[in-house]
Design a protein that fits this description.
This protein is α+β, with helices and mostly antiparallel strands. It contains three helices and seven strands, in the order E-H-H-E-E-E-E-E-E-H.
Length: 147
C-alpha cells in the first residue's frame, strides 16, 4: 500500500483552504486528472456520497467515496466505498496560523489491480505535487476574487 502525508504552510486562511477542498463539485474545473464529480447523496448535511471520474494517460476510472465534512474542526475525511481501490483513505486538516494556515494532508491507497498499482506507484509523487499545486492555485484565485 502506498501512503503519503505532509504539512504545508500556505498564505491562505484555514477557512479558504477548507472551502476549496470541500467544494468537490468544482474539482473538474481545476484538479488535474479529475474529469467529473457528482454528489450521489447526502447522508446528512456534512456526510456525502460522491462519484469521481479520473483519467490519467489511457487509464480512466470511476469510484464512489464517503466524504465527512467538519467545518467547525476544519477537517475532511474521504474513504472509497466502491471502485478500483482495495483501500483509499484521504484526510485533510486546516489549522489557522499567523499569516495563513497549515494544511495537513494524508493519503493511503492500494489498487485492486497490480497493473494500476505499478502505474500509480511510478507517477505517485508527480500526481501529489500537481494536486497540491492545484488546490493552492484555486485558493489563490478565490482569494483574489474576494478582494
Amino acid at each position: 500500500m502506498a501512503s503519503h502525508s505532509e504539512s504545508r504552510l500556505v498564505p491562505y486562511t484555514a477557512e479558504t483552504m477548507y472551502a476549496v477542498v470541500a467544494d468537490m463539485e468544482k474539482y473538474p474545473q481545476f484538479l488535474p486528472w479529475c474529469t467529473g464529480l457528482k454528489i450521489l447523496s447526502r447522508e446528512s448535511q456534512n456526510v456525502l456520497r460522491v462519484d469521481m471520474q479520473v483519467g490519467f494517460g489511457g487509464l480512466h476510472e470511476s469510484y464512489t467515496s464517503r466524504v465527512t465534512l467538519n467545518p467547525q474542526a476544519r477537517t475532511i475525511d474521504i474513504t472509497q466505498v466502491h471502485g478500483p481501490f482495495r483501500v483509499l483513505d484521504t484526510h485533510w486538516r486546516f489549522t489557522p496560523t499567523e499569516g495563513g494556515s497549515r494544511v495537513d494532508f494524508s493519503i493511503s491507497f492500494d489498487f485492486k489491480s497490480r497493473l494500476l498499482n505499478a502505474v500509480a506507484g511510478a507517477a505517485f509523487e508527480r500526481v501529489l505535487f500537481k494536486m497540491t499545486e492545484a488546490f493552492e492555485g484555486r485558493a489563490r484565485v478565490l482569494s483574489r476574487n474576494r478582494v
